Structure formats: C-alpha cells, structure tokens
Amino acid sequence: MFSSSSHHSTSGGFHGNHRSSNLNATRVQSRSRTTDDPHIGKYKLLKTIGKGNFAKVKLAKHIPTGIEVAIKIIDKTALNPGSLHKLFREVKIMKQLDHPNIVKLYQVMETENTLYLVMEYASGGEVFDYLVAHGRMKEKEARAKFRQIVSAVQYLHQKNIIHRDLKAENLLLDSDMNIKIADFGFSNQFVIGNKLDTFCGSPPYAAPELFQGKKYDGPEVDVWSLGVILYTLVSGSLPFDGQNLKELRERVLRGKYRIPFYMSTDCENLLKKFLVLNPARRGTLEAIMKDRWMNIGYEDDELKPYIEPPKDVKDENRIAIIQQMGYSRNAIMVSLDKGSFDDLHAIYILLGEKKRELDGEAVLNAQLNPASAQSVAHGITQGQSPHTQPPASTGFAMTQKFVPRSTSAQVPSVKTRRGSQEQTITPAAQLPTTLLPSEIHVTTSPGTQRVISGVAPVT
C-alpha cells in the first residue's frame, strides 16, 4: 500500500477472471468532469501524495464528513493475472482488519479498468522519513511506538495473517504520532504446517531463511523484521547492510550486528529474541509482549494481545444522520450487516471518526444533528439521487506507489508532537547503516559465535 516497491508486479497463482470478483465494490460510472472539479464518488481530490508504476495515491476529502482520506487508484489493465490475484488478496485481507494501529480500509470502488481503495490517511508520514529528519529515537519514545507495532502485528498473527513487508517505510504516523501499519501488498493467510516459499519484502528486513530459499510457516519472518525495526528505531541505522544484495545476504546469514554504546542492556537482550538465525528459536510475539524492556514505564499496563471489539453497526445517531441524507434505513442496515465497503459503509465509519475528532457525542449532536445533516446532504447530493452510483472517475493516468500518508486498554498509545502534513520519500539506501567506532560493540544473533566487543566494523 505505502511502499516504494512495485507491489502489484509480482506474479503468483491465478485462475479465472478475477477482475471484479469478491470485492463488493461500488461501481463507478464514467462521466466527464472539469479539471478544476476533480471528484471520485463522494470524495474531492486534493493532491497526489504518491505514485509508482501502476497506481497513484491521492489525498482526498470525504465530502459528507470533511474527513481527509487517501485514495489508492490502481490501473487494473497494467497488471498481469498474478498481480491482479495479489491485489484482490490484499483487499480481502484489509477488509478483515480492525486495529487502531493498522491503516483502515473504508471503501472499495471499481470501474472496468480501475480500482479505487479509500483508506485512512496518516498525516504524520512514514517512520522512515521521521528517522531521516530527526535521527534515532530515545528508548522511551521507541518503546511507545514499538508497543503499538507489536500489538498490531500480533493481532495479524492472531488472525492467521502475515504482513511480509514490515519496514520503516510501511510504518506511518497519524497526526498524534501514533503508529499505523500500512501496505498489505505482500500479506497472506497462513496455516501452521503449510509452508510458504515466496521470497518477498525488503532485503534489509528479510529473515535469513528467505535468503536461503527455505520454506517458512509465516509469523517467524515478521518477527525477524520486527527485530530490524526495533534496532532501526533505537539506533537510527540498519543492523545489516551491504553494498549489494550478495554482501547483505552474507551479513544476514552470519547474524552479526553492531550494538551502539547507548543501547540499554534490556533492549539488547530483547533484540536477541528477534534476530535469531534459527527461526524455530525466534521468540513469539505473545512472549515478547511480556519482555522487561517492552513494559518499562508500563508496569500497570503490561502489553497484551489486542481483543477486537464487536462490530459497531447499530449506532442510531449515525444511522439517523445517514437517513437524513436520503438513504433508506434498510439500505443502510444491509450495507453495514454485509460489510459492503460501499458509500454507506464509508459514511457510517467516517461519521464515527468525525465523532472522535469532535471529541464526544454531544459535540457531534450539536454539529451533525439531523436538521443540519439535511442541509449538508442537500449540498452534497444536489442534482443527484443518493441512490445513484458515485460520480465518475477522473481518468487520471495510473502509476504505482502509495505514500500517504485508540482506544482499548489493551492498545498501546502515545501522543507526542505532531508530524508534518507531507513527507519526502527517501530511498532506503540513504538510511544510515554505520555508526561511529566509539559508539559500537559487536554482537551476534543467538546461535552464532559471540564476537569480542571492539571498534572494528563488522565485515
């Protein structure tokens, strides 16, 4: 979703014509629009915030609620059958997810040639860009972020989903600097015992068994990537680097990485649970949640697996507002019960986001009561029945790259300073991968021989 790599170009198994199957997508009727009035459905397009080979991403505003969203616009005609299969798998997986630290999918729209994915917009940009701009995080800040990351990935594993492309570029920050995991282009379902064999993801974050071409269950490759992420947050650099893929592979397979002098012993010990060469000995996320470093400062709030709340589809306040926009109650309930990811689903979910944004039910009632909603709805749907299909696609040229961008007691959260509205994409190669000699000693992944501490670089 938000990666610099071309996620929809990898071939995979594909059978039959899946161009519009199992998406429950809203059909977008084509009609011309002026260039100064760019809309897709009920979204006003604001600017391009990412692009690649087969898709572009637009920052947009949801007109009924005023909420900013990110719309990924994908040219289906540019994708081969394997890439289409992977695209539809990504959408299917995203529809299953509801975690405060994972980017939400709001709506799916489709034409014959184009797929539109309307998603949560994380205005703080990528963690990668934050590190490039600000340098390494203090361990207290890194811990707050990493608790959110581990909570979200453990939630995925609970649902038998692996991400397979966890990296700093795919970790986004919202306006309150909370983590949002993005880009499920390489994600997949897994069954323990049914081995996977696809090498995917970013090489600096890839587990050693992937470099060796070995089959894997799934969660263990995410766990290794989390170790690389933890190291990167705390040190501002990557644990394994190389001038080329061959050199990187050799260093990953040796399992040697530098430990900065400022890294705490607790953090170093936690890294040893992630960066284990033998995948069978790598820590599980349930066990890692109990680690000492993970819970320093959270002694009364030990990190625990996230329990997904029941689906909220019966908020009468939101339903009444949508009815005032001209929709029938039956149509609303059918959309919500089926999880249709259509206009009605998006309006309902985004009204919930608006409620939180306005800080409470009372404010929502004051600003979005049925009487005012009627006038708002009139402005939104003037000249158009609320039951007609969404307005036309804008016919933009398609390319690919998505860059944007709680509140259960079991969900870690942090609010610090606000991030910038738009981040510059920086190649991963520009992230520093070396430290000053005075800052390091050398360690090894468990299962390899311990190297004596010193200032010599790892070779």
UniProtKB/TrEMBL annotation:
Protein localization: Cytoplasm, Cell cortex
- Give the matching PROSITE patterns: PROTEIN_KINASE_ATP, PROTEIN_KINASE_DOM, PROTEIN_KINASE_ST, UBA
In the Enzyme Commission scheme, what number(s) does this protein have? Answer: 2.7.11.1
Q: Determine if S-adenosyl-L-methionine is one of this entry's keywords.
A: no
Catalysis: reaction(s): L-seryl-[protein] + ATP = O-phospho-L-seryl-[protein] + ADP + H(+); L-threonyl-[protein] + ATP = O-phospho-L-threonyl-[protein] + ADP + H(+)
Per the UniProt entry, what are the Gene Ontology biological process annotations, in alphabetical order? intracellular signal transduction; microtubule cytoskeleton organization
Chief place of localization = cytoplasm
Stretches of Low complexity bias are at 1-12
Q: Please give the GO cellular component terms listed in this UniProt entry.
A: cell cortex
Molecular-function GO term, any one: ATP binding
Write out the biased-composition intervals (Polar residues). 19-32
Residue intervals of the Protein kinase domain: 43-294
Q: Where, by residue number, does ATP bind?
A: K72
Domain named UBA is located at 313-353
Region named Disordered: 1-38, 405-424
**Keyword annotations of the record:** ATP-binding, Cytoplasm, Kinase, Nucleotide-binding, Serine/threonine-protein kinase, Transferase
Q: Which Pfam families match?
A: Pkinase
In the record, the note on similarity to other proteins reads: Belongs to the protein kinase superfamily. CAMK Ser/Thr protein kinase family. SNF1 subfamily.
Q: How does it assemble?
A: Interacts with MAPT/TAU. Interacts with DLG5 (via coiled-coil domain). Interacts with STK3/MST2 and STK4/MST1 in the presence of DLG5. Interacts with YWHAB, YWHAG, YWHAQ and YWHAZ. Interacts with PKP2 (via N-terminus). Interacts with CDC25C. Interacts with KSR1.
What this chain does, per the entry, is described as: Serine/threonine-protein kinase. Involved in the specific phosphorylation of microtubule-associated proteins for MAP2 and MAP4. Phosphorylates the microtubule-associated protein MAPT/TAU. Phosphorylates CDC25C on 'Ser-216'. Regulates localization and activity of some histone deacetylases by mediating phosphorylation of HDAC7, promoting subsequent interaction between HDAC7 and 14-3-3 and export from the nucleus. Regulates localization and activity of MITF by mediating its phosphorylation, promoting subsequent interaction between MITF and 14-3-3 and retention in the cytosol.
* Name assigned to this protein: MAP/microtubule affinity-regulating kinase 3
List the source organism. Answer: Wuchereria bancrofti
